[in-house]
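Subject: Protein entry, chain in single-letter code together with its fold tokens

Area: Proteins and the way their chains fold up in space.

Attached in line: The record itself begins immediately under this heading.
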Amino acid sequence: MVEDSSANTSEAGKKVRVIPENFLLSFVLVTFLFSLWGFANDITNPMVAAFKNILLISNFQSSLVQFAFYGGYCVMAIPAALFIKRFSYKTGILVGLALYASGCLLFIPSGWMMAFWAFLISYFIMTCGLSFLETSANPYILSMGPEETSTRRLNFAQSFNPIGSITGMLVAKNFILARLDATAEDGRRVIQEAAPEQFARIQQHDIDVIIGPYTILGIVVLIALLVFAIARLPRSKGEDDTRLHLGITLKRLLKNSKYLEGVIAQAFYVGAQIMCWTFIIQYAGNELGMAKTTAQMYNMVAMAIFVTSRFICTFLLKFFSPGGLLMSLAIGGFALVGGTIFIKGMAGLYCLVGVSACMSLMFPTIYGIALKGLGDDAKLGAAGLIMAIGGGCLMPPMQGAIMDMGAFDLGFMTLSSTRASFVLPLFCFVVIAIYGFRTSIVHGHRY
């Protein structure tokens, strides 16, 4: 099976394995990490709505969960890259797993304190670890074989990321959202005024429900840390050179327009992804009156579409250029988000769910295009692309702030603030389409 799915043909007619035998075990272990951070991402997305109801805060305030979560990626990416360059991919993975586990386990004292800021710090530390993991794992996967198959290899590894995401969604739905007290926000405000002690008990119950899965996740990550500490991971080409060359490398990267445009496109992609997935629950609730557990089902359908599309699009890369396919999918995403904004009812929700089919290819393809041909500069270059995940920390609060506004009168129609807020991911897909076009036309068809 590996032979069929991981073989390519070189110009000389010789069969080239996408995943060489000497890297096969390492590839399997590192690919597991893609599922591990996918789980963290998608158990966290529904927490924006959960914390809003538990703590009775605004959409903007609750979206600070995403600000803290993706802020860790942004802050830690460059330090992680320098650390990995000085030591190794394996050491970077070990540090990432240690920080990831620490952030999860810090949910326990955060719950004791009943302080939102403490949870935000826990999320931030968790994703400082995820930043280490992604800065290590993505370029390590790219280095595990011939450069001409690197984009396919990364897309294949990234195909397992949504498996962790779906698991995270299932845990969020069945072990968090379904177990939270069913009292709606308006009812909680009445209880808060009339019976403060009862309200405090409801809050504590709900916080305890959230803490449990994160604690178990922390234990699982500690086990993964032990496995990686024992495992023998082969060093990739160029990994023995531990000199930083920071200034020279930065100078080369800053002169590489394909790379710089990739960083910008990645920031807008991550912003679009997080906004579309985080606010499915709010869209379904505000526009259609759905319960959070029902709305989370649509989030899971979106992820199932994402997984299926990822495998299909990875196959299509054998026949189409990455830039051309990226541009086509971005145009599709633009059209579907337009439907989310302007079409009322279930049709608008279906459009929002369908956007996931167009997003499936984007992260690893932008990543692979931007890093292709960088050689050892890819280690620091990877950090810039992980830092771009910071787009996911800035845009959700902006969308939340729009949702807190009143309806928008456009003259020919009135848009609810929830639907109008999706103009932000609409703009993101424009930027991604431009990058796909420039990759194919300006930077050359070989990408």
